[in-house]
Design brief:
mRNA processing; elongated; CWF21 domain-containing protein; single chain; mRNA_splic_Cwf21_dom; CWC21
Length: 110
Amino acid sequence: MYNGVGLRTVRGTATNGYVQKSMAYIPKRTPLEYNKELEKALAKPSLASRKPNQEILEHQSKRQIELELMKFRETMEERGYSDDVIETKVEEVRKKLTNQELKVKKRLWT
């Protein structure tokens, strides 16, 4: 026995008597320690208060525009338009949608 831990004698136990610390044991925290950790966590800015990344927002808006263009292209292909006509119409609609997007952004910035 070492520091009151372990067996008095190892005879008949099929062990060598070596005692290890239990790594699974988690000591109880005092309320003071818990409060300090809680204060640290609350002092950090939360994710909700962060501003969104402008590059990600621009990418999402471009993806929305391209999605609308793909839908428009598919409907024109189903109606039997030629590829040249489809390309010109898609470019016109792309310009129109990007201009609308820019107008919306200008309104938001002012």
